[in-house]
Automatic annotation (TrEMBL):
InterPro entries: COX15/CtaA_fam, COX15/CtaA_HemeA_synthase. The keyword Oxidoreductase applies. Pathway: Porphyrin-containing compound metabolism. This is COX15/CtaA family protein.
């Protein structure tokens, strides 16, 4: 198989037409990029939840005279350095996907554009991570850092979803009211994520025991956070039922989204009633990114490639 792409009959359109097929190398690189972006949320959560945010007190070096942790530093340094280490391969694969996407830009400009956005945000994340260390874990910057990581997970998931579909124009594949309800659900889930990030930043897991938080009341935010969570669940349940009964294109992904939300709500209730155990909070953070990525794919499945004419 060539390193660019091949053409084969479309299987998801009303009529058979030419569709793009990415090379195996590009597919592997895109999947690795997605996994790394999800993994760095988990390792970043470990940094925050173990109070290791300043385990490496300088950036880009770990200490003033060493790139790696020294014997004098604690296990916090190893956790923080481990998180930084993932940034290297993450950047490498972002660059690789961008290069491979550039090679096919004539037929897949959408993939090339998305790869450039991902690469730009990865570079931004590295810079923000350094500034966070320099500013001793400013709570607002830490929250911004997580949100950008979540956006990267969504973008790399979207890249994969589009990579398996035909190029060119797209048409709506669901009833208009279903599409409108999906976008409303996306908006509510965005509010859910933002309030969740603020709640975590106000709680006991801000990266270091001595870090000043943003001053908001965590207990109040926890209650505020719950409402968009339950509303999101209700909206997704409606979407799922609608998609199943009408056999709409996003039905499998609405099922996955509903399942993730159920698990997320269970974990959220457990952590709230158990004094915010670090492991549960970490699971909640990773699930939030996967839930957002799944919501992204549901939105993409509202449309399909236009069938070839003639």
């Amino acid at each position: 198989m060539s390193s660019a792409s091949t053409v084969s009959p479309a299987s998801d359109s009303p009529a058979a037409g030419p569709t793009f097929r990415a090379s195996r190398f590009l597919r592997i690189a895109a999947w690795v990029s997605f996994v790394l972006n999800a993994t760095i949320i988990a390792t970043g959560g470990a940094v925050r939840l173990t109070g290791s945010g300043l385990g490496c007190p300088t950036w880009p070096l770990c200490t003033a005279g060493s790139l790696v942790p020294t014997d004098e530093l604690s296990y916090h340094s190893l956790i923080e350095f481990g998180n930084r280490t993932i940034s290297g391969p993450l950047l490498v694969f972002a660059i690789l996907v961008a290069i491979l996407s550039w090679r096919i830009r004539a037929v897949r400009r959408d993939l090339f554009t998305m790869s450039l956005v991902v690469l730009t945000l990865v570079l931004l994340q590295a810079l923000v991570g350094g500034v966070i260390v320099w500013l001793h874990l400013n709570a607002n910057l830490v929250s911004f850092h997580y949100i950008v990581s979540l956006v990267l997970v969504c973008l790399t998931a979207a890249y994969i979803a589009r990579m398996y579909e035909a190029p060119g124009a797209r048409e709506r594949a669901v009833p208009k009211p279903f599409a409108i309800l999906t976008h409303i659900t996306t908006f509510v889930m965005a509010i859910l994520v933002v309030v969740g990030v603020l709640t975590t930043g106000a709680g006991p897991h801000s990266g270091d025991a001595d870090i000043q938080r943003h001053g908001l009341d965590a207990s109040i935010l926890a209650h505020v956070h719950a409402w968009p969570g339950y509303i999101s669940f209700a909206l997704v349940a409606v979407l799922f039922g609608w998609a199943i009964t009408r056999e709409l294109r996003p039905r499998r992904w609405t099922a996955a989204l509903l399942g993730l939300l159920i698990v997320q709500i269970i974990v959220g209730v457990y952590q709230s009633r158990s004094g915010l155990p670090p492991l549960a909070v970490g699971v909640h953070m990773v699930l939030a990114s996967l839930t957002a990525a799944t919501m992204t794919i549901v939105v993409l499945r509202l449309k399909r490639p236009v069938a070839a004419q003639g």
